[in-house]
Design brief:
The complex is a heterodimer of chains A (371) and B (96). Chain A has 14 helices and 13 strands. Chain A is of the alpha+beta class and 371 residues long. Chain A folds into two domains: 241 residues, no CATH class; 91 residues. Chain A has a four-stranded mixed β-sheet. Chain A is globular and about 65 Å long. Chain B has two helices and four strands. Chain B has a three-stranded parallel β-sheet with strand order 3-2-4, with helices on both faces. In chain B, α1 links the parallel β2 and β3. The longest helix of chain B is centred in the middle third of the chain and has 15 residues. At the A-B interface, β1, β2, β3, α3 and α7 of A face β1 of B.
């Protein structure tokens, strides 16, 4: 499409207003089209610049976003990306992340509407992470990088505005989370001793991908002492296997974000990623008796009847069902910390490659411009 | 004074779902009532109270009560099929 003109015939598509930044922000906030922070008003010119990086039909939904089941069309997503402060070249990743979240196994309805405090975490792999300068080093979960901050924010605005995840109605989170403002990182592939996440999942190393995980905020694992692979993994396992995490009661895929130093320690003995996952899984469990009586009877025995229906208090309850359910990435800068990122539990992560409309993978967003 | 401009509304329309083609009518013998427990703690208690109240107020001929595996997941297709086959209307509820 060459312009938004035909799409604007719908009276619910746009409105005329005085081009006054403060007044427009008040208006967007009053109508609930906001995350509480100021937005960039999505004028036609700005939205069309965003859409210059979209080779899909602008009016064809890439998915329906629950709980409202709003149509996630590229042009409405572009409006949210403008509001978030995205550069136009970031837009393909916003679209891809939303598309991935709309896959059934991700259970976006549950993630959007739950009382739990999860938010979709966007993990970027491949050359596009460098192209867009997505932070994978120091303070990767924190502020300071426009791409991380605004891609994650665009996703959140779309989940609110298109999906209806309005706090207290569509989004029933008891607490919510700072991760609901923005939650986007790239894997630190250069500092990793292992194959990166997208290669582990069958994509070529030079493919660019987005992985979405229905995740809590990161929990730190401080380990300045362990000098062996098993030592580091035991410390992470001890942090991860706790009674209140959703992963232990469902079938989640929690993320372990290894700092480069911890990853190097684990890999130093020749440990592959799969071997390290097995070791962590072996140590990440709790005895059933650690749960309250009510949770044992009403939750654990009901959810896992094959293993726990008649199990005694010493029976091990694993953090996840299988070692391969652990997602390992390398992230961050110097320092002997790793992060455990629990999930909603009733969700599976989804990885999609950056590709043209004809399905061919591309390495960079520039390849999509005006295609 | 600022000029006027056109701005995009970031809220997307909801896709229209097909309406139920055939109206459901309760059989002459009474209402077949279905309840879907979403798996939350105490949802079963809440629904039991609801069934009790409906039985007292309406001609209920049967009650089918099913429970989701988890509040966090959608209902299995088998559960939805059974409710569609055995109930004239269904109430789903949560409780914490």
């Amino acid at each position: 499409m060459n312009g938004l003109g035909p799409l604007l015939r719908d009276p619910e598509a746009s409105f005329e207003a005085e081009d006054d930044y403060e007044r427009l922000n008040d208006l967007y906030f009053e109508r609930g089209w906001s995350d509480g922070l100021p937005v960039i008003p999505p004028s036609i010119r700005r939205v069309e610049k965003m859409l210059a990086y979209c080779d899909r039909p602008w009016d064809k939904p890439v998915g329906l976003i629950p709980p409202r089941w709003g149509e996630a069309t590229p042009w409405r997503l572009a409006a949210n990306a403008v509001m978030a402060g995205c550069q136009p070249r970031y837009f393909p990743l916003v679209v891809l992340a939303i598309e991935a979240m709309c896959h059934e196994e991700f259970n976006l309805y549950g993630i959007q509407a739950t009382t739990h405090l999860c938010a979709p975490l966007v993990i970027v792999n491949g050359p596009v992470a460098r192209e867009l300068e997505i932070n994978c080093g120091h303070n990767a979960f924190g502020p300071g990088w426009r791409s991380n901050a605004t891609i994650g924010r665009a996703v959140r605005l779309a989940l609110v505005n298109i999906g209806g995840a309005v706090p207290g109605s569509g989004d029933m989170a008891t607490f919510g989370s700072p991760a609901k403002f923005s939650y986007c990182i790239a894997e630190n592939e250069q500092a990793s001793p292992w194959e990166p996440l997208h290669v582990e999942r069958g994509f070529p190393r030079d493919a660019s991908t987005v992985t979405v995980v229905g995740a809590e905020a990161p929990h730190n694992v401080n380990d300045h002492e362990s000098a062996t692979a098993e030592g580091v993994l035991r410390m992470i396992a001890g942090t991860a296997a706790t009674t209140g995490t959703n992963d232990i009661a469902y079938s989640g895929e929690p993320v372990i974000a290894f700092s480069p130093e911890h990853a190097a320690t684990v890999a130093a003995g020749g440990w592959s990623k799969a071997e390290a996952k097995r070791c962590l899984w072996d140590h990440a469990w709790l005895p059933l008796g650690r749960f309250s009586e009510e949770n044992i009877e009403r939750r654990m025995r009901v959810k896992f009847p094959e293993r726990l229906a008649n199990a005694g208090p010493d029976t091990p309850v694993p953090l996840v069902q299988r070692p391969k359910d652990l997602i390992f990435i390398v992230l961050g800068g110097a320092g002997k910390h790793s992060a455990f990122i629990p999930t909603f539990g009733a969700t599976r992560s989804v990885t999609l490659p950056l590709r043209r409309r004809d399905g061919e993978c591309v390495h960079s967003v520039e390849e999509l411009r005006g295609a | 004074m600022s000029k006027t401009n056109t701005f995009i509304i970031p809220v997307a329309p909801v896709r229209q779902r097909a309406a139920v083609a055939r109206g459901r009518k309760a059989a002459g013998t009474g209402i077949r009532f279905g309840v879907l427990d979403n798996g939350k703690a105490n949802a079963d208690h809440l629904l039991s109270l609801l069934v009790e109240g409906l039985r007292a107020a309406l001609p209920v001929s049967s009650v089918v009560s099913l429970r989701k595996r988890s509040a966090a997941d959608g209902a299995d297709v088998a559960i939805l099929d059974q409710l569609a086959a055995e109930a004239d209307f269904v109430v789903s509820a949560m409780a914490d």
